[in-house]
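chain below, 103 aa
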Amino acid sequence: MGPTVASRYAAGLFFEDRRRPIAQWFNPALGAALLVGIETSAEWPVQRFGLFYAPASGGVIRVHTTIHEWYLRTPKQSPTEEEAFAQAINSAESFLQVEMDFI
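prediction:
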């Protein structure tokens, strides 16, 4: 996806956006990580969690899965932020399981 896009995701996930939870799985043997984090800016009415793969070779690659989003204007209606995060975690675990089948 390129260094510009990777830096945008990295800035949003790690430096500027502390308003949402993130999850991370790290494989020290491969030096790679899988991340679940927010991928939309705070101003958007629709918020979304995304999955990102950080290979040992560097950079960040977005993993395309089901959309895990919620709406700020209706925070108590389904899908809620908690539901979206739980679904993103489930997608990440499924991704890891599929990848393990290839090792």
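The longest strand covers residues 61-71. The beta strands are 23-27, 32-38, 46-54, 61-71.
thats it, cya
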